Amino acid sequence: MTEPNSVAHRAGWKHGAMKRAIPLVACVALLAACGGSSTADTTAPQASTTDTSNTEVTDTSGAPAGKLAAVTVDVTVGVDSSETRREEVALGAPVTLNVTNPGADDEFHLHGYDLSPGTTPKGETASISFTADKAGEFELESHVTGEVLVVLVVS
After folding, report:
1. Is 146 a domain residue?
2. 5/26 Cα distance (integer angstroms)
3. Where in the sequence is the domain holding 150, given as residue range(s)?
4. What confidence tens digit (pLDDT) does each residue in 79-126 have?
5. What is this structure's pTM?
6. DSSP calls for the chain
7. Backbone phi, then psi, for 150, in 5-degree steps?
8. Does residue 53 form part of some domain?
9. Total number of domains constituting the chain
10. Helix (H) or strand (E) holding 95
11. Is residue 2 part of a domain?
12. CATH (domain of 143)
């Protein structure tokens, strides 16, 4: 047997203490991970469902959620057209551009979407309808005058 203050005795004591401490530390860690409350909650969590099939959430435009309000932009060449005119459009919104050139036959083109209604006779209104599914700034241009008539800002 080793003497009470010998190195061998102290090493054996520490080794035995360590063997007993490891399971104790593991138990404490396990208990700490199992809860943060001193009271036991014996009720099982309840699943909750809400029927939203008849619920209609609207954005600030008043359109139902998931359906953005349609945007219509009317432009008359030489009257309210300008390269500085900007029209804001929500990404995903349906858009209709109505364009009239009262002075000449014209062809209009929406850059970035590459849309054109073809040649439009003098004084008649051409319409371009599409979904604004690309973000950015898009110029509507007259191919006769080369002028930018309006800039759509989609965001």
Report:
1. yes
2. 30
3. 71-154
4. 999 999 999 999 999 999 999 999 999 999 999 999 999 999 999 999
5. 0.58
6. ---TTSHHHHHHHHHHHHHHHHHHHHHHHHHHHH-S-SS---SPPPP-----TT---B-TTSPBTTSPPPEEEEEETTTT--TT-EEEE-TT-EEEEEEE-SSS-EEEEETTTTB---EE-TTPEEEEEEE--S-EEEEEEETTT--EEEEEEE-
7. -165, 155
8. no
9. 1
10. strand 94-100
11. no
12. 2.60.40.420
Number of Cβ within a 10 Å radius of residue 140: 25
Q: Strand, coil or helix: what is 62?
A: coil
Contact status, residue 53 vs residue 117, Cβ threshold 8 Å? no
Task: Identify the pLDDT of residue 67.
Answer: 80
Taking CA atoms, 84 is separated from 69, 87, 109, 111, in Å, by 24, 10, 17, 16
Answer yes or no: is 107 within a domain: yes
